[in-house]
Design brief:
mainly alpha, two-stranded antiparallel ribbon, 15 helices, 2 strands, disordered C terminus
């Protein structure tokens, strides 16, 4: 258990400095670094971008917070740049997509297993099976367009098989809104989990929206459009797990705690010493950010921030394969559907979702088309090469 994780004052904000060479340094290696180093890079970029997003929204709604939040955002912008620029140019856009889905599967699996609230844990398991299917569809696209084996990115940690079919994931908006935790009784780790997974899914949605139009292949363009739509559903789903009664500064406290929790988890498990030093540096920076938000909370709310941060964090994020857990969830829960905030058997699904899906899929489903006849097998590109050469 992580006791007193919030007690460090960290590096003062005025001493958190960057240069361009510092921000844009040597990237990780697609082949030589462990896949979970890239998982950590993608996750922490998503959390940093969500920190920027939340602070921009807070500044729009509160005049006295605008200058201090602008000061915090400038550092977090540079942190996000340094982290995101660790991704290397040898990843094709589809390979990066495969990496994003590995993040969604393995991090959500870890969260689902450590979440103490049964309903929230069920929500993470539900979304997990959809990201699992997205990985399968994008792996088929990688094979179709580049003749590559997705396992070169996944490094054998994550299965490539269908989950809940993407064609069945499209729901009416009201069937994506979940029951929130109660801010007064929920464990701090529950609040951190909801913040963390929302941030990760938001980043994935935005990446697909940006990269999808850049493909020439019509099926690729449609596939990114289809899965981006589901990712928006996921942002709705996970964001609605948070209590809307939390104030802006309360949410900012929880978000800074989430950033600390993320960097702490990364530093504890990073195998690349150079990258580990970055996680440790930014952990100290985030302690400084939390100190700043604490003071804002005391000044504007006239309350003790420890009321919000009270609670023991049971364990760091488990950055590792969760194959057996994912397989068990797939076996037991793939047929679940939604009726409002409730998870129900397939034959009890909301008719609003059935109708919404029928409209979207009236002219076919790109995710079904792209994987027609596809079945993952090791060494895809070598198999293709041998077949073409007549061996």
């Amino acid at each position: 258990m992580l006791n007193n994780l919030w007690d460090h004052r960290g590096v003062p904000l005025e001493k958190q400095r960057f240069t361009w060479r510092d921000m844009v340094g040597k990237p990780i290696s697609k082949l030589d670094d462990d896949a979970f180093t890239r998982v950590r890079v993608i996750l922490m970029n998503g959390i940093e971008l969500d920190a920027l997003r939340l602070k921009h929204i807070a500044a729009r709604l509160n005049g006295p917070l605008r200058v201090p939040l602008a000061q915090l955002r400038r550092v977090e912008q540079h942190q996000a740049t340094l982290v995101n620029w660790l991704l290397s140019a040898d990843h094709s856009p589809i390979e990066t997509t495969i990496a994003y889905e590995q993040v969604a599967i393995e991090v959500t699996a870890s969260v689902a297993q450590h979440e103490p609230d049964p309903y929230q844990a069920q929500t993470y398991r539900y979304g997990l099976l959809e990201d699992f299917d997205h990985l399968y569809r994008y792996s088929a696209l990688l094979d179709r367009l580049e003749g590559k084996d997705a396992n070169n990115i996944l490094q054998g940690y994550t299965d490539i098989v269908p989950g809940r079919p993407t064609v069945d994931e499209h729901r009416a908006p009201e069937d994506d809104v979940r029951n929130p935790y109660d801010r007064h009784s929920a464990a701090l780790i529950t609040k951190i989990h909801a913040t963390l997974i929302t941030a990760a899914e938001y980043q994935t949605h935005d990446y697909y929206m940006n990269i999808g139009p850049l493909f020439a292949d019509p099926v690729a363009r449609q596939l990114y459009a289809e899965i981006a739509s589901v990712e928006e559903q996921h942002v709705t789903q996970y964001g609605s797990l948070q209590d809307p009664a939390e104030g802006l500064l309360e949410k900012l406290l929880i978000h800074e705690a989430t950033e600390i929790y993320g960097y702490y988890s990364c530093a504890q498990q990073e195998s690349n010493p150079r990258i580990k030093a970055i996680w440790e540096r930014f952990l100290d920076y985030e302690f400084g950010h939390l100190t700043a938000i604490r003071e804002l909370y005391k000044t504007h709310e006239r309350r003790d921030p420890d009321e919000i941060l009270a609670g023991v964090i049971p364990a760091p994020i488990d950055f590792g394969p969760h194959r057996e857990f994912v397989r068990s969830v797939l076996d037991e829960e793939v047929s679940l559907r939604c009726d409002g905030p409730a998870y129900v058997p397939q034959d009890q699904e909301s008719q609003a979702s059935v109708q919404a899906r029928a409209i979207l899929n009236a002219e076919g489903s790109p995710s079904t088309l792209v994987s027609a006849g596809y079945q993952w097998r090791p060494g895809t590109e070598l198999t293709h090469s041998n077949r073409l050469s007549g061996e």
